[in-house]
Amino acid sequence: MPFNILVAIIVQKRLAKSCHLKNSIAYKYLGIATSILVTVQLSLGFWQSRWHYSRQLNGLEQRLQNKADFLSAVSVESIFNLDFLALENLMKQTSEDTDIVYSVIVDGQGQPLTRFLNKQHPIIAEKIKNKNLNNYTLDIINSLDRESTIHQIKKTIVYQDRLLGEVWLGYSYKNIKKEFNRAASFNLATAIMVSILLAIITLIVFNKQVGNPLEKLAKLAQELANGELDKRVKIVNQDNEIGLLEDSFNQMAIQLQETIEGLHQNNEDLAITNAKLARATQLKDEFLASMSHELRTPLNAVLGLSEALLDEVYGTLTERQKRSLTTIHNSGQHLLSLINDILDLAKIESGKEQLHLSCVELSNLCAASLDFIKEQANQKNIQLDSQIETEFGCVELDERRIKQVLINLLTNAVKFTPDWGTVSLKVWGDSQEERIILRVIDTGIGIKPEDMDKLFKSFVQIESSLSRRYEGTGLGLALVKNIIELHGGSISVTSELGKGSQFTVILPWKKMMQSNLKSNVSVSQPPLSIKYSQALILLAEDNEANILMMSDYLVAQGYKLIFAHNGFEAISIAKEKQPALILMDIQMPEMDGLEATRQIRKEQEIANIPIIALTALTMPGDREKCFAVGVNEYMTKPVNLKKLVNNIEQQLITQQDNSLIAN
């Protein structure tokens, strides 16, 4: 590479490095501009040198052609007279031309009469080495003619139409090519230097007008990105594109600052709102838990005492007394169902409710749901129809929740259907789309089109006046919709006023292998034959009404009872009396039932006593908390006394079996 080209490239790189232009627009522009200018200059220089080379070459050929014509003309007389001395003198004239490699005059038979060979030419020097020129002249010339760098001109010598001989001139382009290469190198270096100089000048102007403002904008943009939102660019000239860009940048910075400040304010407001919502949710959960406890505790006494009275624990009853107690008991159960609906809806809407999926026989589930409302339908002489058109086998569902859905829909159908009407349950499957369709059809009063949107809203009833004919809280359908959506299904309704309604439930059809799964369908067990009539039971309960109700019933069943009113007393009495079983209320003063159970499980002498938790706490997680501390069974208030006795006997039998195995 020529030295001046190397210097030019080094200058370009040094300039770019000193100006911090690497990877910048200006640096790229410098490279592009230099490349374009160098290409243009090289093209112009090449074509200029080529034109000069062609001109010199044509001049050389013309000059040598003239010389050949001259030699042909002046050699006629010498050849005719065989004057070899004159011919030698002619050859000496051609030796003065450095472009001529050889010159030869031959006679008509092609024999050389005189010749000149340029011995300084390297090819000729090699050819004539150790050879006699007189003998090998034609051989040397013929071999020279085959060289690509040697060209030949021939001119005939004629006198009065008689061929006397020929003039041969061999010449070389070497000098012209040498001159062409020198000129091309000079043009190349000049083109590069001029191009770089023009590119640098253009770069300086470009950098001042474009590069520096863009670099300044980039720096300010980085500062904006780092949070310095008050940064602005100073506009020098608004009449060009850079000025417009700077103005747009400032406008963007202002809008960005306002937007981010607004977002910060919105985030603060949102955080406050979220905190309030979280607090409201917590208060709602606490309120529901408290209300559940406060309502279930007295309801436990009402239902328990009415059940005990109906079982004639306190003596024989008349039929009128039984009817009255049945009314009390049914009203209590109705109140309990309302409380459960409110809690269920609250749990589902808060996202705390989880499905307990199991293998369910859908035909059995539908039959159980119809049996539940059969008495209510019979009272109004309503005909119940059931059509299950598909053999489903075992499907994956939450049995309790789907039964709750069917009972709600069927109860509503019976409630809103006049006497002597019809309520139908149709069930079929779509195997292609893998879904189950359950449809409840009634011939009831129907629903107005404008009331359709109210159906599935919580605490909303279509007939809300004080003189309404149908009881209810407006929770049933809202709960139904939430349970179905938890299963990934949907519910829809069609109705015609005065003719009836159709509620259609669509659920995903997930088949299960019954042999591999445990079904939640309750299986009736044979009655227990073993009675633990003398078993000592510790009842830890702080509510006197509940103590009275449960103690009277359990004593009537033959059990012995001792009592504790808080967790401390429960632990102390359990150590002293060693009861066969403990009935533990969870919410008690001084020490609650959870902590008392935890302490009992740590005491070796009483750690294995069965504990049944009796609680009005039914919020999500309460059941798990009880089992986590070591209770054996969990029952929610109001407690069904018959189930309580069954659980007590079951726990005592299990305890006895474990003792036998241990021994």
Name some characteristics of this structure.
663 residues; alpha/beta; Beta-Lactamase; Heat Shock Protein 90; 4 domains; five-stranded mixed β-sheet; five-stranded parallel β-sheet; 16 helices; rod-shaped; disordered N terminus
Walk me through the structure.
The protein has 663 residues and is α/β, with parallel strands linked by helices. It has four domains: 3-51 and 178-222, no CATH class; 58-171, PAS domain (Beta-Lactamase, 2-Layer Sandwich); 357-516, Histidine kinase-like ATPase, C-terminal domain (Heat Shock Protein 90); 536-662, Rossmann fold (3-Layer(aba) Sandwich). The protein is 55% helix and 16% strand. It is built from 16 helices and 16 strands. The protein has helices spanning 3-18, 25-80, 84-95, 122-127, 133-145, 174-225, 241-310, 319-349, 362-379, 399-415, 476-486, 544-556, 567-577, 593-602, 622-629, 641-662, and strands spanning 100-107, 112-117, 150-159, 162-172, 358-361, 383-388, 394-397, 422-430, 435-442, 490-496, 500-508, 536-540, 560-564, 581-585, 611-615, 633-636. A five-stranded mixed sheet has the order 6-8-9-11-10, with helices on one face. A hairpin with a 3-residue loop joins strand 10 and strand 11. It is rod-shaped and about 180 Å long. Residues 1-12, 14-23, 464-468 and 515-531 have low confidence and may be disordered.
